[in-house]
Amino acid sequence: MTGPRPTPTIDVHAHLLLPEVEEAVAGHPGHAEARSLDARRNGPAALAVNGPMVGERVPRLTDVAVRLAAMDTQGVDVQLVSPSPSHYHYWADPQLAERVCRLANEGTAAHCAKAPDRLSGLGLVPLQHPGLAVELLDHALEQGLKGVEISSHAPGHELSDPSYEPFWSRAEETGAVLLLHPFGCTLDERLDRWYLSNTVGQPTENAVALSHLIFSGALDRHPDLKVIAAHGGGYLPTHIGRSDHAWWARPDARGCAREPSSYLKRLYFDSLVHDPYVLRELVRAAGADRVLLGSDFPFDMGSDDPLGALRSALLSDHAFHAVRGANAAALLLKD
């Protein structure tokens, strides 16, 4: 793919490990239970692979110089860095949850400050305590971060929960970016073999969470909310026709003002779908201005060559450069 490069190449899906967060939760009631649930959801074979996989990638997850060298190899100019979803700790009580989020926000900001022209960051908020979400979002923004990363749900709270309304309002008011990135799938042991917990679980959780946002009318009430759905939004964008059919056919599916597919053009999606034909369909369904380059750096379920994956979709030059960086630049690099 040739042509002008008016904007930097921007990867909006890249992660960071923060040892200080794990030190803060170690030994607390609930931590062992959460680890046990994670083990049941993933199964022993996945856990045997995950430890060495993450261990080998610790330098890229913690050392800015190593990160920048890897970005250079990939042809990525700028990363939007978010904490590893393993740092959510949605089991934590209010006091510990606030500490976790403040440490994550400050740690991410400090990491990005070592290369401010190439790294921007997202922090965390405690979805399990909706009453703290606005305060911790403000804290993230005060650190110079672009917004926060959230999971697909928290225990007892779907994203359609009315208790999140103040959070959506504050995010919309401030222009904060929200990266929707699931961690763990509630199908639990049904997915505990062959890494189905990730390959099936992650796109399922994306689809469920986005459906809660759409059908609840949250995007009607907050039309300027800036949500980036990781993993291309999971199954929803390519199977949205079933949601549209339900909206027309059933009165109980009329929680939103318009056809569900119309809301795809109010959301953003990363390009990490692992299939050029799916990526083309995502661009068709959401619009070329709503898809952003994403790699899941540096984990093994990501792409080591996000630009190559984008090229393989054979998009038009305009769409290619929009996804490569122009869309993210418009979203993230405004003064």
Which SSEs are present, and which pair or pack?
Blueprint: E1 10-16, H1 19-25, H2 31-42, H3 44-62, H4 64-74, E2 78-83, H5 94-113, E3 119-124, H6 130-142, E4 147-150, E5 153-154, E6 157-158, H7 165-174, E7 177-180, H8 196-199, H9 201-215, H10 218-221, E8 226-229, H11 240-249, E9 268-270, H12 276-286, E10 291-292, H13 306-311, H14 317-332
Parallel strand pairs: 1-2, 2-3, 3-4, 4-7, 7-8, 8-9, 9-10
Antiparallel strand pairs: 5-6
Helix pairs in contact: 1-5, 3-4, 5-6, 6-7
Could you name the key traits of this structure?
14 helices; 8-stranded parallel sheet; TIM Barrel; 335 residues; alpha/beta
Walk me through this protein's architecture.
By secondary structure, this protein is α/β, with parallel strands linked by helices. The protein has one domain: TIM Barrel. It starts with 9 loop residues before the first strand and ends with a helix.
Give a quick summary of the entry.
This protein is of the alpha/beta class. The chain is built from 14 helices and 10 strands.
What structural class should be given to the helix and strand makeup?
alpha/beta
Query: Low-confidence parts lasting 5 or more residues at pLDDT below 50?
Result: none
Largest sheet at a glance? 8 strands, parallel
How confident is the prediction overall: mean pLDDT? 95
The CATH homologous superfamily is termed: Metal-dependent hydrolases
Order of helices and strands: EHHHHEHEHEEEHEHHHEHEHEHH
CATH architect. name = Alpha-Beta Barrel
Question: How many discrete domains?
Answer: 1
The general outline is globular
What is the helical fraction, as a range of percent? 40-55%
Any idea what the radius of gyration is?
Answer: 19 Å
C-alpha end-to-end distance:
30 Å
CATH class: Alpha Beta
Organism: Streptomyces vulcanius
Keywords: Lyase
Protein name: Amidohydrolase family protein
